[in-house]
Amino acid sequence: MDIKALDQGLAVSGQIAATDLQAIAEAGYRSVICNRPDGEAGDQPGFSEIEQAAQSLGMAATYLPVESGKVTDQQAQAFGTLMTQLPGPVFAYCRTGTRSATLWALSQAQRQPLASILEAARGAGYDLSGVARRIANGGRTPTEVVDATHDIVIVGAGAAGIAVASSLLARKPDADIAVIDPADVHYYQPGWTMVGAGIFPPAHTARTMASVLPRGVKWIKMAVAAFEPERDALVLDGCRVVKYQQLVVCPGLKLDWNGIEGLPETLGRNGVTSNYRYDLAPYTWELVQNLKSGQALFTQPPMPIKCAGAPQKAMYLSADHWKRQGVLKNIHIEFCNAGGVLFGVPDYVPALMEYVKAYGIDLQFSNQLVAVDGAAHEATFIRTNADGTKERVTRPFDLLHAVPPQKAPDFIRVSPLADAAGWVDVDPSSLRHKKYANVFALGDCTNTTNAKTAAAARKQAPVVAHNLLAARSGSTRLASYDGYGSCPLTVERGKIVLAEFAYGGKLAPSFPKWFIDGKRPSSLAWLLKERILPPVYWDGMLKGREWLAHPVLSDG
Question: Residue ranges of the Beta-lactamase hydrolase-like protein phosphatase-like domain (predicted)?
């Protein structure tokens, strides 16, 4: 017997024997539901035997038999009613636990988000993606109605989604493309570091979604609830169904603000900020300007994260401002990094260390932020020592730049497209899904090992566009993505260490060394970041102009 908890009120398992009831009762369960019809197998104890053993232990027992593979809407409703009536917590069982888990999932459809239900079930070992559409429909079997059908469907209208749509249209202007995204605003997220340093106004990094979507695509302004790749279909909120011939998945990643205790409640006040949110970047600049002395903490969570250099970019620009104002000597700066190195590509570390020393930054590696008490101005970390032991360390702060842990979006993690870690499982070169040949993915949601940056998406979009259309035409001449990513490390106002690298940390400079030496701080690189990259983004990448990003093709 393997007791698998789905939530605080319910656990499920496969078939039990009467002798198992003692252990179930000792585990704290007060009621038992049998979801397996009597006589389903020759070695199966009848419900009356289970009921008698349960009652002898003071437990309630109920018989709600369900035929394998045929959970009805009425049975799910009955299960939900039992969950409210029986003494809890409740233990339910069938042959494997799947029917019991399915009943629970359908009964919770109007109480919890779809992704939360599927994730809880998956955590217990049950893949309920086959009933995702029913859950999305409030626990009821939906009528098989397809609301829309398109040749190419793109999930996500961020940098990757719009770039790949534009690259597709540049190659095939009459392509039938739909883009699914509920957002009203499109953000140039690489600019938020500059907002947090008072260099860009916030409005410089935002435009309406309608203004940046390429002409000719259909915008479906809804959120995706589930994927059904076996049926070439998507389920949207409200159980609307969209069918496709080919699918591109690029919804970005999820910033898990709730992954740090107390952080959501204090963001934007008490000296706690983050350049990872549009509305908070201006508060970063306000705090930096006002701080004249005290303790400044800058944090970085475990990898992978969006733009791994961003946490220290904020720190360098803040320190540079304090230096220019003559107050740096009064401010103790700590960089608390959950990882063990300053930057993942060693070639760039020497230049960065020069600034760390010049600014007097105290590097604290293997320190992961786990809790924030804004009112007390205290941040708590889990520090991993050299011998592997862990301890909690609390640090005071006057300014805290917090970066949340990051993971794939909920609806990705619980989908058939995800690998064991929750990221879309693609070939790192072709960006084609390893199981579903008509599915491609790019951007922050994939399990490729490149840096999760807009620069990576800029290189990936033409590769996906070419390979998707090649698959449609039967061509074997494919484009290859080499893992390129770029991180302009703003080490001071007016200078940048331009880190450019591919898979394996191989350096991949875009410019000759005499023009920009990426391993040294450069004013030309700053000019690139401040003046050139924003228009390249808005008027190049998002328009399908593949400047310095044209894909390399194989010989077939």
Answer: 2-110
Task: Read off the amino acid at residue 45.
Answer: P
Residues 267 and 365 in one domain: yes
At 143 the pLDDT is 63
Q: What is the distance between the alpha carbons of residues 261 and 391, in angstroms, rounded to a whole number?
A: 17
Domain-located, residue 141: no
Q: How confident is the model at residue 77 (pLDDT cuts 50, 70, 90)?
A: very high
| Contact predicate 188/538, CB 8 Å | yes
* Residue 448 is assigned to a structural domain of this protein: yes
Residues in the chain: 556
Give me the pLDDT at residue 427, please: 98
243 and 377 fall within a common domain = no
**Number of neighbouring beta carbons within 10 Å of residue 438:** 16
**Domain coverage including residue 474:** 149-253+408-553
Q: At 235, list the tokens.
A: 């389920």
Half-sphere exposure for 349 (CA within 13 Å, toward CB): 10
Out of 407, 439, 455, pick the residue that ends a domain: 407
The model's pTM is 0.83
**Helices marked H in 137-271 — which ranges?**
159-171, 192-195, 209-212, 263-266
> Which CATH number do you get for residue 120?
3.90.190.10
CA distance 136 to 133: 5
Positive or negative torsion for Cα 132, 133, 135, 141: negative
Residue pointed to by tokens 């230096």 = 323
| Secondary structure element (H or E) that encloses residue 460, with its range | helix 454-473
Q: Tens digit of pLDDT for each residue in 385-433?
A: 999 999 999 999 999 999 999 999 988 998 999 999 999 999 999 999 9
Region for residue 188 given its phi and psi (left: phi exceeds 0; alpha: psi -120 to 50; beta: otherwise): beta
| Residue 129 falls inside a structural domain | yes
Q: Yes or no: say if 442 and 164 are a contact pair by the CB < 8 Å rule.
A: yes
Residues 21, 132 within the same domain = yes
Task: Taking the CA atoms of 310, 316, 319 and 320 in sequence, report the sign of the dihedral they define.
Answer: negative
pLDDT tier, 42 (very low <50, low <70, confident <90, very high otherwise): confident
For residue range 128-148, list pLDDT tens digits in order. Answer: 888 888 888 888 877 666 788
Contact 110, 138 (CB under 8 A): yes
Domain membership of residue 26 (yes or no) is yes
Question: Are residue 399 and residue 455 in the same domain, yes or no?
Answer: no
Give catalytic residue positions.
307, 487
Q: What is the pLDDT of residue 312?
A: 97
Domain count, the chain: 3
Are 95 and 36 contacting, i.e. CB atoms less than 8 angstroms apart? yes
Residue 26: is it exposed, middle or buried by C-beta count within 10 angstroms (0-12/13-18/19+)?
exposed
**Residues of the chain above pLDDT 70, percent:** 99
CATH number of the domain that residue 305 is part of: 3.50.50.60
Instruction: With a cut of 60, say whether residue 244 has pLDDT above it.
Output: yes
Q: What pLDDT is stored for residue 342 in this prediction?
A: 96
- CA-based max dimension of the chain: 85
3-state secondary structure 325-353: CCCHHHEEEEEEECCCCCCCCHHHHHHHH
